[in-house]
Recover the amino acids of this structure.
């Protein structure tokens, strides 16, 4: 098999709009990360969450450095990542702009006072183990200490739109 790329169909990566549009083609799950900051419980909606290692159990996520919540999460020793279900659009929207608006969100604090949002598809309770500079973001690595999960459809983000990923049987 011979592959001849058509170089003229590619856009230089310096075109940030084209780069962002290309990234949008990849569907990602929507999660909310919670922690406790100097001003109390905080949360942020993210799609930069992924598994990193099975043994040891590690995950990573990456807040933007220009976010007003960045420093709170970088400083937090413990945090939780909540994978949102299709019926949690309000939870998603709540933490897009408001870091401490837990009003109307069912959450219980764990032994580190980290808010654990109820009704999620999965929750990963973590201890921060590493921080890595990554351009305009910081990669936060967490060792998973506890996990919970349930069946359901995921809330996803693709092409700038929030939608639902159907469960596979």
């Amino acid at each position: 098999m011979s592959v001849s790329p058509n170089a003229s169909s590619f856009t230089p990566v310096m075109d940030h709009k084209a780069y962002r549009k290309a990234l949008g083609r990849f569907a990602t799950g929507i999660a909310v990360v919670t922690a406790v900051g100097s001003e109390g419980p905080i949360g942020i909606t993210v799609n930069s969450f992924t598994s990193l290692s099975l043994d040891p159990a590690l995950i990573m996520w990456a807040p933007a450095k220009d976010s007003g919540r960045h420093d709170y999460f970088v400083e937090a020793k413990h945090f939780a990542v909540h994978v949102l279900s299709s019926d949690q659009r309000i939870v998603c929207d709540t933490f897009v702009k408001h870091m401490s608006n837990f009003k109307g969100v069912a959450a219980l604090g764990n032994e580190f006072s980290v808010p654990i949002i109820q009704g999620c598809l999965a929750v990963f309770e973590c201890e921060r183990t590493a921080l890595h500079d990554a351009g305009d973001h910081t990669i936060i690595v967490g060792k998973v200490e506890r996990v919970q999960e349930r069946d359901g459809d995921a809330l996803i983000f693709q092409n700038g739109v929030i939608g639902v990923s159907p469960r596979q049987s």
